[in-house]
Amino acid sequence: MQAVSNKLAERLGDAPTVVSADYKPRADGTTMKALAWFGARDVRMVDAPIPDITEPDDVILKVTGTTICGSDLHLYHGEIVQLQQGDILGHEFMGIVDRVGPKVKNIHVGERVVASFQIACGDCSYCKKKLSSMCDRTNTSGLQNAMYGHRDAGFFGYSHFTGGFPGGQAEYVRVPKGNVNLLPIPDSVPDEKALFLSDILPTSYHAVVDVGVKKGDVVGIWGLGPIGQCAARFALIKGASRVIGIDNVPSRLLFAQEKSGIETIDFNQHTDVVKRIQELVPGGLDIAIDCGTFHEPKTMLHKVEKALMLETDVSEIVNEMIMATKKMGSCGIIAAYAGYTNHFNIGALMEKGIRLIGHGQAPVHKYWHDLRAMIETGKIDPTFVVTHRVSLDEFPELYASFDKRVGGVEKVFVETKFSAPPSAGAPTLTRVADWGL
């Protein structure tokens, strides 16, 4: 798939942008540790050149915290197109400013900052509305333009389908348009809380806000990974009367019950999820949110069709949401889908008057100031979802274990040589090999 997509992308050519994904190595030839993709289920630690200022509004960070995201597993399995061997992965990271370009006046060397996972230009019509993930001017992918009719913003560490920018699962990272894409972090907020302003907090909050959760709503959440766990918290903050989480991983179901006090459905025990929801909520859900994944089809039909490349994504969760949601209710999709699906229940969508909302990649810049304030005041503490801390060197093992949900893993704080010691109450350093013990 990668060879075909890269060849097609080459034929389509690059779209114009105001930034380059390439960076200039440091003149002294120094290298850093970084996690790179080499094929499906093949990620390796490599020595890569440390980036230098390449464009005048660049910022170079010494990474103090990074992590693995559920959507990174789509890369791990080779399901996102335009991956190339040696691509440095990682889109959630923060750090200390190491160098700044001559045009950067609002960010200073030595400052602690978190990066948005998207690279926004700051000047296009979308950026002016703080819709940073929809930026028109930072993603070169002509293939995405051909598939979707438009392009998202460039993203860090997420294949050449999103611009080919080296990511933050590394000791250093270059942040293009650093004057736009970095948020200063006060000393009162430790890295374990600030890191998640990069993605999972804005993403889960965006899903809840965009789908319109309001006081008294009964909300169903498909997928209890970190996004689903945080979305459940935000739904409760917005006044939901009940939140029901659907998953099949025992540790995640128990985590949601104990940490957030929500109801759960194990779809291994209740294979007819729609029937079970209708038993629990006569009349149906007010709101349904897809925080799941497209790379794990449940039925043999979709497994075969995916294997034969007759579809790239599966419609099972979306169909369940449409069926389980009351007439004139709303369903939102924040899970990362990439292409095409079969057997979508378009009839039920139309006849029930369901509002089906594709949330898009979350516009981090729209929310991260408010979310930073919520962390500072204690309204939300994202460390509830952090279950482990490991070193950068263990990233290959982390990907394999995270993929299999070993050891009750939810969210992992990955430290580098620049990281501060664990803050009070945060997980201490462990080895991935010990999680299953």
UniProtKB/TrEMBL annotation:
<feature type="domain" description="Alcohol dehydrogenase-like C-terminal">
    <location>
        <begin position="226"/>
        <end position="292"/>
    </location>
</feature>
<dbReference type="GO" id="GO:0008270">
    <property type="term" value="F:zinc ion binding"/>
</dbReference>
<dbReference type="InterPro" id="IPR013154">
    <property type="entry name" value="ADH-like_N"/>
</dbReference>
<dbReference type="Pfam" id="PF00107">
    <property type="entry name" value="ADH_zinc_N"/>
</dbReference>
<dbReference type="InterPro" id="IPR036291">
    <property type="entry name" value="NAD(P)-bd_dom_sf"/>
</dbReference>
<keyword id="KW-0560">Oxidoreductase</keyword>
<comment type="similarity">
    <text>Belongs to the zinc-containing alcohol dehydrogenase family.</text>
</comment>
<dbReference type="GO" id="GO:0016491">
    <property type="term" value="F:oxidoreductase activity"/>
</dbReference>
<keyword id="KW-0479">Metal-binding</keyword>
<dbReference type="InterPro" id="IPR013149">
    <property type="entry name" value="ADH-like_C"/>
</dbReference>
<keyword id="KW-0862">Zinc</keyword>
<protein>
    <submittedName>
        <fullName>GroES-like protein</fullName>
    </submittedName>
</protein>
<dbReference type="InterPro" id="IPR011032">
    <property type="entry name" value="GroES-like_sf"/>
</dbReference>
<feature type="domain" description="Alcohol dehydrogenase-like N-terminal">
    <location>
        <begin position="56"/>
        <end position="186"/>
    </location>
</feature>
<dbReference type="InterPro" id="IPR002328">
    <property type="entry name" value="ADH_Zn_CS"/>
</dbReference>
<dbReference type="Pfam" id="PF08240">
    <property type="entry name" value="ADH_N"/>
</dbReference>
